[in-house]
Amino acid sequence: MNRLVALAAMLGLTVVGCAHSVPVAQRLQEEEARCALVQTLMREPVPVQHVAELSAEGKTLPVQVAVFVRTPEESLLERFFESDASLCGDTRFRVVRELLGEGLVLYLQETPDGYTYDARRAGPEDLSMGGAPQGMVRRRAEGGWMGATL
After folding, report:
1. E strands, the chain, where?
2. Distance from the Cα of residue 43 to its chain's centroid
3. Which of 100, 134, 128, 103 minimizes the C-alpha distance to 116?
4. Residue 3, CB half-sphere, CA atoms under 13 Å: how many?
5. What is the Cα 25 distance to its own chain's centre?
6. 108 forms bridges with which residues in the sheet?
7. Cβ(104)–Cβ(115) under 8 Å?
8. What pLDDT digit, counting tens, does each position of 113-148 carry?
9. Within a 10 A sphere around the Cβ of 118, how many other Cβ atoms?
10. How far apart are CA 72 and CA 69, in angstroms?
């Protein structure tokens, strides 16, 4: 009898574990897609300029980058990445959830075919709901992202 209970418990845990693996895989795929978007943004003129300025002022590379989505109609500012996105970056920048000193903040606002963005140098206390778009990225038909004019 005890063996049957133990077997049932193990099977129950196995089923629960399998049920959670699909959302985790999907979430990882979404995070990779978000990182591809950030990689595209970090090749745009305004973010490139800010990273160059921070580097010229002696800030250690890679520069910290925090990414937020603005929803002004709801007065909402939310993080773009659900988990620690520190794997998103390269030699010039590293995406972080929390700025530890001055870095770059990318503010995104969703549009029907992509995002408008503005990029600002900021510290942890300098987040903002306001700001004019400085550029735009659009979804490519074949996948991925490309810079676009406003």
Report:
1. 63-71, 76-79, 93-95, 103-111, 114-122, 135-139, 145-148
2. 15
3. 134
4. 0
5. 17
6. 69, 117
7. no
8. 999 999 999 998 888 888 899 999 999 988 889 988
9. 19
10. 10
